[in-house]
Design brief:
Oligomer: single chain
Order of helices and strands: HEEHHHHHHHHHHHH
CATH topology of the largest domain: MetI-like fold
Strand content: under 5%
CATH superfamily of the largest domain: MetI-like
Helix content: 55-70%
Radius of gyration: 25 Å
Length: 302
C-alpha cells in the first residue's frame, strides 16, 4: 500500500508536532525574543532596562575593538575547522574501510567524549598541558636525553630545561577547540563516506588513477555533502565557544563569546550584551544561508 502524504493526515501530524513546537516556542523563541528586544534598549538602573528602540548598542558593537575580537574569533573558528577536517577525514575513511568487526568499536571511540562532561574534559586537557603536566614531562625527558647524548659524544650539553608555554595562549585555545569539536567533524564525514559506491573507487584504481588522484577526483567530490555538513557543524559551535577560551586562553586569547559573557555578568550591560549576541547569531545565519545557496532552487539535493 502506498504511503500516504502527511498532509492528508493532519490530525496525527498535529498530535505529534504540537508538543515539540510548544516547547520550542516557550523555551527558545520567546526567551530569544526578549533578548532581541533588550538589544534595542538601555540601562535605566541596576536591574531595569528601557526598550527605547535605539541602535546605539549595535553601533557600539561595530567599533573596531569588538569587531576585531569578532574577526579574530571567526579566524580561530576557521582554523579549528580546517584542522578538524584535515585530521577527521583520514579518521572517517579509516572507519569506513575497516572491517565490520572493528567499525563499531572505532565509532564508539569517536562518540565516547560525548559521554563525559565538557568541563571535565577541558580540565583533563589542562592537566596534560600544564607546566607540570604529562606533555611537559615528556618534552623534559626528550630534552634530558638529548643533553645526555651531546655530553656523551663530547659536545656542550643543552641549557637548563624550561617548561613549554602550552597553556593560557592562542595555541591552547585552538588545541582545546579541536579536541572538543573533532567528533562533530568525523561523524558527518563517516556518514557521507559510508554511502559511497565502493565500486567507483575500485574502478578508478583499476584504471590506473592512483590513490591520491582517486581521493581527489572520486572520494572528495562524492563526500562533498558530508564535508560541508561537518564544516558547518564544527565552525558554528567553535565560533560561539565560551568555556574552552575562558579556561585555556590568556588575556589575549578571549573570543567574542567571552566578551558577551562579561557584558551580562560583570558589566551588567544587558542591552549591549544582547546586541553582541545577535550580531553573532546574524553571522551564523549568514553562514547557514551561504551553505544553502550553493544548491540550485528546485535542483537535486543529493
Amino acid at each position: 500500500m502506498a504511503e500516504q502524504d502527511w498532509k492528508q493526515q493532519k490530525r496525527p501530524f498535529a498530535a505529534v508536532s504540537t508538543l515539540p513546537l510548544l516547547w520550542t516556542l516557550l523555551f527558545f523563541l520567546l526567551p530569544m525574543g526578549f533578548v532581541w528586544f533588550y538589544s534595542f534598549g538601555r540601562n535605566a538602573g541596576l536591574t531595569e532596562i528601557d526598550i527605547v528602540g535605539t541602535l546605539d548598542n549595535y553601533k557600539r558593537a561595530t567599533e573596531w575593538l569588538y569587531l576585531g575580537i569578532f574577526l579574530k574569533s571567526l579566524a580561530v573558528a576557521a582554523l579549528v575547522t580546517l584542522i578538524c577536517l584535515i585530521v577527521g577525514f583520514p579518521v572517517a575513511m579509516a572507519i569506513t574501510f575497516v572491517s565490520e568487526k572493528w567499525r563499531p568499536w572505532l565509532l564508539l571511540g569517536i562518540m565516547l567524549p560525548f559521554w563525559t562532561n565538557l568541563l571535565i574534559r577541558t580540565y583533563a586537557l589542562m592537566i596534560v598541558l600544564g607546566q607540570q603536566g604529562y606533555a611537559n614531562q615528556g618534552l623534559e625527558a626528550l630534552w634530558s636525553g638529548a643533553s645526555w647524548l651531546k655530553t656523551l659524544i663530547g659536545l656542550q650539553p643543552l641549557s637548563t630545561w624550561e617548561p613549554a608555554p602550552l597553556l593560557y595562549n592562542n595555541f591552547a585555545v585552538v588545541l582545546g577547540l579541536v579536541y572538543v569539536h573533532l567528533p562533530f567533524m568525523v561523524l558527518p564525514l563517516y556518514s557521507a563516506l559510508d554511502r559511497l559506491d565502493k565500486s567507483l573507487i575500485e574502478a578508478s584504481l583499476d584504471l590506473g588513477a592512483g590513490h591520491f588522484r582517486t581521493l581527489m577526483k572520486i572520494i572528495v567530490p562524492l563526500a562533498a555533502p558530508g564535508i560541508i555538513a561537518g564544516v558547518m557543524i564544527t565552525l558554528i559551535p567553535a565560533l560561539g565557544a565560551y568555556l574552552t577560551p575562558d579556561l585555556m586562553g590568556g588575556t589575549d586569547s578571549q573570543m567574542i563569546a567571552n566578551v558577551i559573557e562579561r557584558q551580562f555578568k560583570r558589566a551588567n550591560d544587558w542591552p549591549f550584551g544582547a546586541a553582541l549576541s545577535f550580531l553573532l547569531i546574524y553571522a551564523m545565519f549568514i553562514l547557514i544561508a551561504m551553505q544553502g545557496l550553493r544548491k540550485k532552487p528546485g535542483g537535486d539535493a543529493r
